[in-house]
Amino acid sequence: MFYTDGKLQYPVRVEKANPLFARALQQAIGGIEGEIRVAMQYFFQACGARGDPKFRDLLMNTAAEELGHIEMLATAVALNLEGAPLSLKEQVANDPISGAVLGGMNLKNLLSAGLSAMPVDSDGVPFDMSHIYASGNIAADMVANVAAESTGRALAVRLYEMTDDGMKDMLSYLIARDTMHQNQWLAAIEELGGGQGVFPIPNSFPQDQEQQEFSYAFLGFQQDGSDPVAGRWSQGTSIDGKGSFKAGSIMPMGEKPQLAPAKPRGGAQKEQM
Amino acid sequence: MFYTDGKLQYPVRVEKANPLFARALQQAIGGIEGEIRVAMQYFFQACGARGDPKFRDLLMNTAAEELGHIEMLATAVALNLEGAPLSLKEQVANDPISGAVLGGMNLKNLLSAGLSAMPVDSDGVPFDMSHIYASGNIAADMVANVAAESTGRALAVRLYEMTDDGMKDMLSYLIARDTMHQNQWLAAIEELGGGQGVFPIPNSFPQDQEQQEFSYAFLGFQQDGSDPVAGRWSQGTSIDGKGSFKAGSIMPMGEKPQLAPAKPRGGAQKEQM
Amino acid sequence: MFYTDGKLQYPVRVEKANPLFARALQQAIGGIEGEIRVAMQYFFQACGARGDPKFRDLLMNTAAEELGHIEMLATAVALNLEGAPLSLKEQVANDPISGAVLGGMNLKNLLSAGLSAMPVDSDGVPFDMSHIYASGNIAADMVANVAAESTGRALAVRLYEMTDDGMKDMLSYLIARDTMHQNQWLAAIEELGGGQGVFPIPNSFPQDQEQQEFSYAFLGFQQDGSDPVAGRWSQGTSIDGKGSFKAGSIMPMGEKPQLAPAKPRGGAQKEQM
Amino acid sequence: MFYTDGKLQYPVRVEKANPLFARALQQAIGGIEGEIRVAMQYFFQACGARGDPKFRDLLMNTAAEELGHIEMLATAVALNLEGAPLSLKEQVANDPISGAVLGGMNLKNLLSAGLSAMPVDSDGVPFDMSHIYASGNIAADMVANVAAESTGRALAVRLYEMTDDGMKDMLSYLIARDTMHQNQWLAAIEELGGGQGVFPIPNSFPQDQEQQEFSYAFLGFQQDGSDPVAGRWSQGTSIDGKGSFKAGSIMPMGEKPQLAPAKPRGGAQKEQM
Amino acid sequence: MFYTDGKLQYPVRVEKANPLFARALQQAIGGIEGEIRVAMQYFFQACGARGDPKFRDLLMNTAAEELGHIEMLATAVALNLEGAPLSLKEQVANDPISGAVLGGMNLKNLLSAGLSAMPVDSDGVPFDMSHIYASGNIAADMVANVAAESTGRALAVRLYEMTDDGMKDMLSYLIARDTMHQNQWLAAIEELGGGQGVFPIPNSFPQDQEQQEFSYAFLGFQQDGSDPVAGRWSQGTSIDGKGSFKAGSIMPMGEKPQLAPAKPRGGAQKEQM
Amino acid sequence: MFYTDGKLQYPVRVEKANPLFARALQQAIGGIEGEIRVAMQYFFQACGARGDPKFRDLLMNTAAEELGHIEMLATAVALNLEGAPLSLKEQVANDPISGAVLGGMNLKNLLSAGLSAMPVDSDGVPFDMSHIYASGNIAADMVANVAAESTGRALAVRLYEMTDDGMKDMLSYLIARDTMHQNQWLAAIEELGGGQGVFPIPNSFPQDQEQQEFSYAFLGFQQDGSDPVAGRWSQGTSIDGKGSFKAGSIMPMGEKPQLAPAKPRGGAQKEQM
């Protein structure tokens, strides 16, 4: 269950409203690496967490924090949009600046939301909840969370570099929180056994039932028959500690597939039957 | 550039065509953790890879392999669909089995694809390319790839458990390849410096510009004022080796936000102005 | 800013786990009239609320409550899924029940989420945040909220009728909350001036700038030339109190449109130029 | 069944073609508050209308009118696009205006549609038919229609303010029709019994089966224990006339949820079992 | 502009309501090859038609007819849904039939639409207007229309084979109309010059500006160096009459691409710079 | 199964990096008429091809070629993005050019992909795999392929006209390949019997089971009762050679539909029962 006091987790200050930066900030709200994604991802992972309840608590608490980040960013977007013109002023040709501002901003923020934030990305594409990765496997979830916070911090850094406004202060806070969250989910992986304990995910599948000849083989294609690109992935003990890497050319073990002819009354051409 | 010889990477054998299992297999084609996702994700990461070209080669070769996995699974779906009835035979009530088969399968596989595979998931939802994570940050990409292969292997294991058919053989091969691919991307992370070298991602951002007071602090909420759930994330050196974990209560540092009144001719109610 | 204590707003009891009902409940989570929609809609309306701050408070508090409803429903889904089989057991024909259960449930709940809830509707379609109506016009938002709670309560009633389980208790609570929320947003409309005060929305546009001849005219088409279907909408004072209804035949005031020929090098056929 | 004469309901005049305004107009075609939405919403509500057939007639007639509005707007978009350049002319830096025009317009209108309108919004996002609210409950449908026409009129007003072209004339007509349609659906609610007759929707559910203790209680959270924000929603007779508003603090009646351990062969980590 | 008389173009008779067939029929409404698609495709092509106005008339008239087909199918869906149970009746195990019916139908038709049709496909996926192909090139549009009517007729034939109900009568009418519409758009191509006149589309691009060496060459890959699969496409005059087919092995003319290093403050890893 | 050598099919040269043209090129990658679409469409058609295996070979080989086209275009996008600024430089007003560049480009290419290509269209909308038309009917598939290559070539021509860069060279190659692919699929139709052999699609449905009275009748609406617009479609032998065109007024053969009253406990208003 959730509570709110309507206050911001961290102050949001905009010195010079910039509708184009408002559009950029939308990526941090409704982009696939944005705050709606992590808030809802941790929320659904928490709701489905089976096993030690501490992971549910960890996830749900962080979900609550991320909801507060959406609130901060939505406030920042609304404040930046206060600089937007409402009209085209006759012709773009006579007034290039206002045309460029309207042209460069996300027009839905004005037309559809009346100068407010929306759950869309920087191109106005709505966030789609299929990006909520909650697999029922706690280790896979933790890796997905590290991934989300990695792309999230890359985005926050790019926004930080884009602006010279007071917005830098808010972003330096969000970058710090992303640092923590990357570490937090890595710490959870450590609690679950670390690299050699959790991989390959899921660790509950008996590996003698997989085709082990191919479990640690890097396969690639070279027209001259030489081995594919070498690296840590082609030699040495595997990272999960359960095999040894090797490398080889990829080649077919199967034949060209043969499907049955089309059924007589199934809407195919008669030549296919 | 790509080549094909039309053969299958591994044999695909269906003993008893089962349209419901065809629907389940669709998740491995068009689900968010399926093969289209990894094939296209590695492809786009390769196309945008800046820096050491070996990562481009590694990614593009694995993309090619995953395309072959889609081909295997699409063949498996088509073969399983050959058991589907084409008609409802009067009434469901009189013939519960054919009703259950048609009811349980993805009807589009019949109506729209004529008993073939489609780029959709097990509920018939088309794959959406926003799931292609290619961030321009090679380390973030590698973590995203470990995540993709972790949920992918969990899915393959669930499919393996669901069937008693010859399909188990093909799936045991795909499970092995997922083992390799998890290890392969982890190996790439090792080449990039390992945990303490790559995190926090991006490692190019100077950490003295983030609000470091919050960079390693786990924040949660307890109504009785006690600390939030303890774990590896609340004490000890951080996983990236650059700080020490601490824990505390989450609390607002900002106030309730204040937006300006609505603009006079901006489509708001006059009470908002 | 948000807090959570991890507890449920109302007890969730499942007596007999039913995976098909789990699928039905998914509509109340990720359907367009479900709880993610209202939680996020009130959240974004709050973030963009300009004018009297009490509406921001009202909206944000109710957003927090709705988050708790998602949590309740996600718990209910996970508990109902505990009755799902993991395998097809040879052939559907030999075991119609397990086939029907797997066929009737949302397979992603098993394959992709490991028997947990997902942010999808009852057909497995992910929720799409374009359904968050937050217009920057507080009255339009309130009407959208009444609409959301009306379809939401219709859905809850249908779920209540579908089950005979302890689930009825949880649903009777949610139905009551929907009753309140319908009334609450209607009360907000009353605070904003009631029907004659708020309509036509937006009330800030000077009506002498609209083509008033058509502002209160019901237009329809009858092949015999008679008036279209009569009702309250075709006579009497308009509901907003600012005009009188009349009725008439719809007919074109414009001509067939004439576009310029295609530009010479714009990718059209040469016959279009 | 539908007929067309190819003429426009109201004249469409563009004095100075403006591709950026074409992009803005796209919101009124393919935005969630646009004309495709209302046309198709009334159409599907009509097709599913059970009960008094006059509502089917009312809805289908208005659907036909809204189709004509799409036609008007699509014509307006095509005419405004006739001002678009087809080439970048060397460099944006040397020719800021043509760059700004191409940069500010929806590029798909040129690249994909050859300077014609598309069923997309002002950011080029295609309309998605999940926005067609047709609930099978006639009162819920009418409220949804008032909501659609309220956001629709807010949009039309914003477009009116944005332009100084002859487009203002067409928009003043559409604004008037939105005034009528808001009133028309409110009139339909009056025919269905008015506020006290239709609410809570659905009015067919016996209220003694809902948890009536919570049916008229506004719940919010204040850290200091005081009541949440007061207003018409916290006291007095409820708007539906069937209860009395009260207010209180939101608090959990349930416990932390407990899910069963993960099933042995279900793809979870072994630590979860 | 559009008119309606509320009547059906052709009678719709359901003898035995079948909710599973209702789900199948949904594909003909909201599937990518369904009636919403063709209605809206012809509508938008008409709105953007430049050149001889007879094509606008042809397209808009057929759009109107297709709207009537949606109406017929929506009526058929609603009538078929009248056979759906509203409750699960205790346990699926005790009542396999009602469970199979609810499990096999599109649950949203019941939960979200109250036993009415929706603009979704047979798996409950909403129609997405990006499928409206209207290219600004009249010949490309006509080919797209032939494609739409070809998949549409295949779908109608499959539905015809699936049912034994009076529904066969309605479907035999729709199949006939699809026959006409395929021929109608082929006739339009003939008016535009026929195969040798319209191809390659667009015919307005001067072919001496394309790399003509590759304009009629079929390229494929054989590991043994032999030519790829032979057919009409590898020899003889090309279908557009403007070249001669030849065949050859596909091979790279470019090198491995080289991107610049990542920019210093662009969110990449420092190893990429 | 697929192989890659990491080289480009044709050289990709960018002389003057232009982020706005990068955005335009995205349409050729992730637009509905772009290269992902054709690559995946031919791939899935191949996987489901029943009948003569030469069509599978033809399709799979061309799928491989199209994958190489995505690679070329993704390289071109990345190279063009190298001209993008990373920051807003204080205010748009002071630096209109950098503002216009950032405003005109797809911001996700910078924020989310670090100056790389993405599987999105020119407005940043992700490609959605529902556009993969693979019907199980080989003739319908071939027509869909001609349609795809027709819109694809129109797009390539528009891109060619938009740029003055070395990009013209790459585009002239892609235009030539589109010429070939249009002809190639037309050649496949010829192999399948040509117009009179393949139409109406599917040619396996016995036409005496369709309502033949309407199979070759063009229906339209004229208010004055005259025939609808005349053309090749209203007279002469039909294109499929199996009938004669005629024309007539469209008119209803059915009545207004009558649905049953709403069920008592189905969530409708009581007035509907």
TrEMBL record, chains A, B, C, D, E, F:
<keyword id="KW-0479">Metal-binding</keyword>
<feature type="binding site">
    <location>
        <position position="57"/>
    </location>
    <ligand>
        <name>Ca(2+)</name>
    </ligand>
</feature>
<feature type="binding site">
    <location>
        <position position="66"/>
    </location>
    <ligand>
        <name>Mn(2+) 2</name>
    </ligand>
</feature>
<keyword id="KW-0106">Calcium</keyword>
<dbReference type="InterPro" id="IPR007760">
    <property type="entry name" value="Mn_catalase"/>
</dbReference>
<feature type="binding site">
    <location>
        <position position="35"/>
    </location>
    <ligand>
        <name>Mn(2+) 1</name>
    </ligand>
</feature>
<feature type="binding site">
    <location>
        <position position="181"/>
    </location>
    <ligand>
        <name>Mn(2+) 2</name>
    </ligand>
</feature>
<dbReference type="Pfam" id="PF05067">
    <property type="entry name" value="Mn_catalase"/>
</dbReference>
<dbReference type="GO" id="GO:0046872">
    <property type="term" value="F:metal ion binding"/>
</dbReference>
<feature type="region of interest" description="Disordered">
    <location>
        <begin position="229"/>
        <end position="273"/>
    </location>
</feature>
<protein>
    <submittedName>
        <fullName>Catalase</fullName>
    </submittedName>
</protein>
<comment type="similarity">
    <text>Belongs to the manganese catalase family.</text>
</comment>
<feature type="binding site">
    <location>
        <position position="149"/>
    </location>
    <ligand>
        <name>Mn(2+) 1</name>
    </ligand>
</feature>
<keyword id="KW-0464">Manganese</keyword>
<dbReference type="InterPro" id="IPR039377">
    <property type="entry name" value="Mn_catalase_dom"/>
</dbReference>
<feature type="binding site">
    <location>
        <position position="69"/>
    </location>
    <ligand>
        <name>Mn(2+) 1</name>
    </ligand>
</feature>
<dbReference type="InterPro" id="IPR009078">
    <property type="entry name" value="Ferritin-like_SF"/>
</dbReference>
<dbReference type="InterPro" id="IPR012347">
    <property type="entry name" value="Ferritin-like"/>
</dbReference>
